[in-house]
Amino acid sequence: MPDPNELSQMEEVQEMRAKLDLFESALDASAEGLSFISPDGILLYVNQSFEAIHGVKASEVIGRHVTDVIKNTRMDIVAKTQLPEETEFLIDGSRRYVVSRIPVYRKGRMIGVLGKIDFPDLDKVKELANKIERLEAQLKYYRHNPRHGPGPRYTAEDIVAVSPRSAEAKATAMRVAPTHSTVLLLGESGVGKEVYAHAIHSLSLRAPGPFVRVNCSAIVESLFESELFGYEEGAFTGARKGGNPGKFEMANLGTIFLDEIADMPLQAQAKLLRVLQEQEIEKLGAGQQIKVDVRIIAATNQDLSKLVAEGRFRKDLFFRINVIPITIPPIRERREDIPSLAAMFWEELALKHGISYKKLRDDALDLMCNYDWPGNVREMRNIIERALVVIREGTITPDHLRMLILGGAPAENDTVEGNCDLAAMVAAVERRSIATALARANNNRAQAAKLLGISRPLLYKKLHIYGIE
Predict the structure, then answer these.
(1) From CA 204, how far away is CA 178, in angstroms rounded?
(2) Strands 359-360, 395-396: parallel, antiparallel or unpaired by DSSP?
(3) Angle, nearest 10°, between helix axes 445-452 and 456-466?
(4) Please, which residues have CB within 8 angstroms of residue 355's CB and are 6 or more apart in sequence?
(5) How far is CA 407 from CA 298, 393, 432, 449, in A?
């Protein structure tokens, strides 16, 4: 029979080996390029990471002097001086590292030097430094600007996505939201591109920062650069005393939403490209660059590739903003969303106007589901608001909706079939067309004039004639 003492010793040895294996596995997992040398510079231990980084085997280097294995090392010098060197720069051939060399003591006597790689990739060091700098800048900003401006009005809950196409668009938006990537929102006018932009910002790391919206189609070309990039005092005639910050400076540490970016003038496009490339702006009348940390979300209802081919949009800028394109389908291609959209708008607007007694008949909802909604979500919301505010009856019928879609509630003597006088009929059609254009343009007069194919002054004249607010 085996001696019980021998069995006990064997179990102890096995347990010790198991502990050593566990300790060695922990060293391999927790430290990059770990090595240990004796006081006279002889390698006593290297882990698997050291073998992989230096392209050697432990059996080949254990027992050799550390300078024979690692060029430009200072582990042997640390062994002599007994002074630790932490987070130091090391060049080993074509490789660059951040390393630490730490003397190890036992009972007051140095028994060797531990070497490890803190960062095997200097790009990671730069990335970490940039992240720390950005977080410090955010902290400083929030300390001095506790009320830094309006945040996002919409969140992911405001995006209705029942149909497969809209669900796919929403999923993509939610997936890229936490990143810093530039997003390009594509889709017809009124599909909800601004809602997507707000939702993306609200889910990003920049959510505590500002969200600044710029409607590129509403800015006069001559004022574009001063609006986007700001100006110094005296930069031009009429410049505000003390100068003015631009939209990019206002959006620092947050998100800027460039709506209708296709309408941006070519000169401003060139400056925007520089901001994207260099992350810096130059105010009008200023001699120095200002660093900005801004995420860009752009949107358009136009075909940018076509505009590039026509020379109306810069190709290099198109490639810069077309990083994460998200196409939001029109309502006619996602009819499954209509009941949920209608319910959401009805609840929101009924609460806003304090109207709780009205209801939408089922056949009226069916009409909404079958209508193409050329003005998309924006038009639907406007029609529902008109139905709640204008229609006197408590139940909204299909006839009510047809009347509203044609251009608003007619007066007592202005029905669709009413007056046969030609001038009166033309006036009625004009009035309805203008009302419809305003609904589709979300009351943007410039956009409505463009939809109608008339000049802005003529539109204002017609608004006055027909008493449209």
Answers:
(1) 4
(2) parallel
(3) 100
(4) 349, 388, 389
(5) 31, 18, 4, 16
Within 8 A by CB and 6+ apart from 100, the residues are 84, 85, 86, 87, 88, 115, 116, 118
| Composition of the chain by helix, strand, coil, percent to 5 | 50, 15, 35
Inform me whether the pLDDT recorded for 246 exceeds 50: yes
pLDDT at 416: 41
User: How far is the CA of 273 from the CAs of 262, 280, 313, 318, 319, in angstroms?
Assistant: 14, 10, 12, 9, 10
Q: Do the bridges between strand 295-300 and strand 211-215 make them parallel or antiparallel, or are there none, so unpaired?
A: unpaired
In 3D space, the residue among 109, 55, 112, 119 whose CA is nearest the CA of residue 87 turns out to be 119
Residues 368, 342 contacting (CB under 8 angstroms): yes
Q: What is the largest CA-CA distance in the chain?
A: 123
The mean pLDDT value for 282-307 works out to 86
CA–CA separation, 116 vs 254, rounded Å?
38
Q: How far is CA 257 from CA 195, 260, 299, 300, 366, in A?
A: 11, 10, 8, 11, 35
Domains within the chain, CATH numbers bracketed: 13-120 (3.30.450.20), 156-329 (3.40.50.300), 338-466 (1.10.8.60)
- Single pTM value for the model: 0.60
Helix (H, G, I), strand (E, B) or coil at 22: helix
